[in-house]
Amino acid sequence: MNSKQLAWKIRRHGIEMTHLSGGSHIGAILSVADIIAVLYSGVMDIDPRNPKKDDRDRFILSKGHAGASIYAALAENGFFEVEELKTHYQNGSRLSGHVSHHLPGVDFSTGSLGHGLSAGTGMAYAAKKDGKNHKVYVVLGDGECDEGSVWEAALFANHFRLNNLVAIVDHNHMQSLDFQENTLEIEDFGAKWKAFGWNVIEINGNNHEELHEAFEKAEEFSKEESHKPTVIIANTIKGCGVSFMQNDILWHYRFPHGGWEYEQAVTELHAQKPEGVEDPYTPNGIENPAQPTEQDDIGNDHTLSYTWNTSYPEKMRRVEAKPGSDEREHRV
Predict the structure, then answer these.
(1) How far apart are alpha carbons 156 and 106 in whole angstroms?
(2) Which end of the chain is more exposed for a tag (fewer CB within 10 A), N or C?
(3) Cis check: omega of the bond before 55, within 30 degrees of 0
(4) Phi/psi at 260 (nearest 5 deg)?
(5) What pLDDT score does 331 carry?
(6) What is the DSSP pairing of strand 328-331 with strand 199-204?
(7) 322 DSSP assignment
(8) Three-class DSSP category at 317
(9) Which strand (E) or helix (H) includes residue 21?
(10) Which residues are 178's β-sheet partners?
């Protein structure tokens, strides 16, 4: 399975898992799907037959609320049965709402934001001390980069020359209840990481070609700039892949309910299905999917931008996806 096929599977599993469980964070699952798919389709050295092999690459999803994306990637790579994904968030399930290390292939439980990079730097530091050659990959959310522990870890990684560490920030420009820049301004984001001594690569994080090139460049950096860790700032679209979820903060905490929400999401994904991929839930799509009505909450702005202002209202901005495109529009 190539990365684009796996990304589609992650999105389809994510819709089904959150729909069945009533679990939230589908927006984050969809935004990070392409990053996870590229990592799990050839970048990382992992083995489902030997999940604890000593020389494996380590992976941490610091934004643990998008855990369904990891569960889907692990299942599709043979770490456990795909059928188990249906137990997501159910009582007694191994597939907790946030990432759990009780599953094979998961190196660290996450959910309390701001801790993943610290754990990753510890793993990378230990590898250096032990003379091991594996790499450590950490995927963070841009919202959690508000936390000081992220920047303490960034300082540590530079100080101890952890060139075996790669951080990837899912920069979907949204957090909690609003756009990130309206919550706590973080730009110039790349300049901050450079100032902390990191190699910085900025890309479209929903573009597989750019993702593959970024990981190849990170590998080159680890040899050419031997003393520096690398961060990939992956600009993504929250809810990417389902039009009515894209850049709508409602879907940070929401799940696709039965009726038009679920049926329209599945129908849109089917329209994008890559060749050679099968849908294990609705193989032929959904015939005559339910349509939203005028009474349904769709296409409305759900951020807090209309009810509060920062000290610098001229900096308040919207981030929107152009229809039918992965590109972004910024308007003040």
Answers:
(1) 24
(2) C
(3) no
(4) -65, -35
(5) 32
(6) unpaired
(7) P
(8) coil
(9) helix 3-21
(10) 175
- Neighbouring CB atoms inside 10 A of 244's CB total 19
pLDDT per residue as tens digits for the range 63-97 = 999 999 999 999 999 999 999 999 998 888 999 88
pLDDT at 299 > cutoff 60:
yes
Cβ(167)–Cβ(140) under 8 Å? yes
Strands (E) across the chain are located at 58-61, 136-141, 165-171, 174-175, 178-179, 199-204, 230-235, 318-321, 328-331
pTM of the full predicted structure?
Answer: 0.91
Write the CB contacts of 56 (distance below 8 Å, at least 6 apart in sequence). Answer: 44, 45, 46, 47, 50, 134
Tens of pLDDT, residues 122-179 = 999 999 999 999 999 999 999 999 999 999 999 999 999 999 999 999 999 998 888 8
Q: In 3D, which of 322, 177, 306 has the Cα closest to residue 250?
A: 177
Closest CA to 214 of 228, 235, 186: 235
Residue 43 near residue 215, CB atoms below 8 Å: yes
CB atoms within 10 A of CB 26: 28
DSSP 8-class letter at 197 = T
> What's the mean pLDDT when you consider all of the chain?
90
Question: What is the C-alpha to C-alpha distance for residues 53 and 154, in angstroms, rounded to an integer?
Answer: 27
